[in-house]
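Sequence and structure are kept together here, with a separate record for every protein. A complete record is shown below as an example:
=====
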Amino acid sequence: MKIDFSGKLKTLSGLIIKNEKDEDFTLAEACSNALVLSDERREARTPIEAKEFLRRYRLANRVYGAKEPIEIDAEENVLIQKALAFSGYSGLIIGQAVEMLESGETRTEPDLKIPKAK
């Protein structure tokens, strides 16, 4: 599946979220950070082998450095989603990221809207 990791993550009102450098927060940044920083081993209480850390590091570099959509396989997609789940990011970030990863699309227009109460 081809994923465009340049997609920008947004608030519920459609504003682009900024990172600590006041730059647009992208799917690439969220996913690559999650891959190298998430710590599900603490939850599982089992160590992760060095080869697995290397695999995540290499995938994070591919994702972060992508200038155009890149091909990722189903196993890599699951790995990224699992890393996001343990990343400590809010549901707003994780929800959008998983949506983009599952659809293979990114949002180009602010289409997140808060539903009106009935």
In short: Confidence is low (pLDDT under 50) at residues 107-116. Strands lie at 2-3, 70-71.
